[in-house]
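Whether sequence alone determines local backbone shape is best considered at the level of individual chains. When preparing material for the folding task, we compiled for one chain both its residues and its backbone structure tokens. The sequence in question and its structure tokens are set out directly beneath this paragraph.
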Amino acid sequence: MSNSSFWQKVMGKKTGPPAKPPTLVSPLGFPYRPFQFKSELEKGYTYEVQATSNLRQWTTLATEKSRGEIEYVDAEAPRHSNRFYRIVVEGVYSTNVIGFVTTSLPPGYSLVANPLKAADNSIAVLFKDLPNGVTVSRFDSKTSTLVESLYEDGEWTNSGQSLVPGEGAVFFNPTAEYLLLLFVGEVAGYSTQSIPEGFSIRSSCVPQPGSLHIDLGFPVAEGDVVHLFDRDKQKYTLYPYSNAAGWAANPPMVNVAEAFWVEKKIAGKWAYEFSVEKGWVRAADAPPPPKEKKKKDKPAPPSPSAPTPPVGPAPPTPFKPPT
């Protein structure tokens, strides 16, 4: 036995890759309070807890020695609107990344998305402790209607509804104050979502902001129209796209936990691949983004032919998209 191996045994220090990479579990967070999670790692290994707000640049928060069970509490979490965590041990990364995302919704309507995979993605679990009168409406593409759930006295009228990453919903805040939503869960690994022809409400499966098609890899095509809803102004901005001219104005920029309406002329597939070590990239089978042409910074011209989705500022009602 070498001297180094002898002292490592005496000190109880493990070296070399662990037999089983750690998996982060039991994420727990509340608004304005610390965030915590658990994991397991063979005793004696030294590990790092790392965090990021953008899934690209990581910072080491702590370096500790494993006692078998790991329970980490981030007291600095309330200082961040988004934060994600991983563990690194002897060059081996945890099998997943978990974290939290917060978003603040003004009075009136917002288009919201659930950016993280949770153990339970039902609206009854995602949206709790809200004032009476809040509504969450999901779009049913088969019937072309909005299906509304109303929150009254701590319960939802349609509690079985779910909201998974990639989907979107119309959120109505009936109060005069901003409401803070907190999403807790795991960053999706590889995922694909089918974008149907016609109207649908969509969102990115990856909790990152950016240009919809360049940064987030949305499969935009000739004749598509994206509708972003301005929460503060309570109105839409339309982004028609053509292969010849690109976007009519600047490309649509989407925030984390923000959904959008899209009218697609032809169905498409939106694909992602997330690497715990390297961050996220668009999946190899996703279509390449269209070339973007330089344009002057100006508002989008009016587009009479582009239909307007039936939300905000008027109350959502069942509808059939114009043909």
In short: The helical segments are 3-11, 123-126.
